[in-house]
């Protein structure tokens, strides 16, 4: 069984997926972390993030591994754990450029499709492109202001700066962010985290 939870930036995908996965007793898979890992490594190597060939060479010679767990995903490059470095403002700024590269998307998709079922997968295109045959699909939205207020609790910037950055990323991510036609769209604005998780679990049961 595969459950997909897609949605816009900071709509609650990873928190909700973790809650749903724990209730189901399966791992969840955070696809965005692989895009973030590619971005971090590209930045650290001072690569041009618009150019795929060097980035792909880097990812090929120093493989990155996603460890999907129900409580939270971890990302490794060899013995080095990258997880804590993936949610910086610097990576936030660069990740949409890297995620627009078809070669990087293929690199991520191949890793995701190799994972053993069952799991909950979250990202932008889990229900459309990567797992179109998933049995249950969900899509989370909320206004940019609400998302910025939530994310402000995790980032050093103020709400207006975060809101502007989220809107910029929404625009850059538009291509791969359309909901699957068979996804249930949930506006998380009026709901708390548990409310979103319960909406999904009710649908699944
Ligand atoms: N429905 C909700 N109500 C209140 N806070 C939420 C809700 N959903 C998510 N959050 C909080 O918003 C922040 C962003 O959620 P996160 O799961 O990281 O989103 P995403 O994976 O879509 O970027 C987290 O601090 C999370 O706890
Ligand atoms: N399946 C996916 C997952 C993420 N992405 C892109 C789009 C996002 O800007 C970045 C980071 O994704 P992530 O889910 O970690 O980002 P947010 O937590 O929603 O801000 O990667 C994508 O293009 N396709």
From TrEMBL:
Gene source species: Deinococcus aquaticus
Domain of life: Bacteria
Keyword Transmembrane on entry: no
NCBIfam families: cmk (TIGR00017)
Domain spans labelled Cytidylate kinase: 3-203
Name of protein: (d)CMP kinase
Encoding gene (name): cmk
Similarity comment: Belongs to the cytidylate kinase family. Type 1 subfamily.
InterPro entries: Cytidylate_kin (IPR003136), Cytidylate_kinase_dom (IPR011994), P-loop_NTPase (IPR027417)
């Amino acid at each position: 069984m595969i459950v997909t939870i897609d949605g816009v930036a900071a709509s609650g995908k990873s928190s909700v997926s973790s809650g749903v996965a724990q209730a189901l007793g399966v791992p969840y898979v955070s696809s965005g972390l692989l895009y973030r890992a590619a971005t971090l490594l590209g930045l650290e190597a001072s690569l041009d993030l618009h150019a795929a060939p060097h980035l792909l060479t880097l990812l090929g010679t120093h493989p990155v591994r996603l460890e999907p767990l129900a409580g939270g995903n971890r990302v490794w490059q060899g013995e080095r754990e990258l997880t804590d470095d993936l949610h910086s403002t610097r990576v936030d700024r660069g990740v949409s450029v890297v995620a627009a590269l078809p070669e990087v998307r293929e690199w991520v998709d191949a890793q995701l499709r190799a994972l053993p079922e069952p799991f909950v997968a979250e990202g932008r295109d889990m229900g459309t492109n990567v797992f179109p045959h998933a049995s249950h699909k969900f899509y989370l939205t909320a206004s940019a202001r609400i998302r910025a207020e939530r994310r402000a609790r995790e980032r050093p910037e103020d709400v207006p700066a975060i809101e502007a950055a989220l809107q910029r990323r929404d625009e850059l991510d538009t291509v791969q962010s359309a909901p699957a036609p068979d996804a249930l769209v949930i506006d998380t604005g009026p709901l708390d985290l548990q409310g979103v998780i319960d909406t999904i679990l009710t649908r699944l049961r």
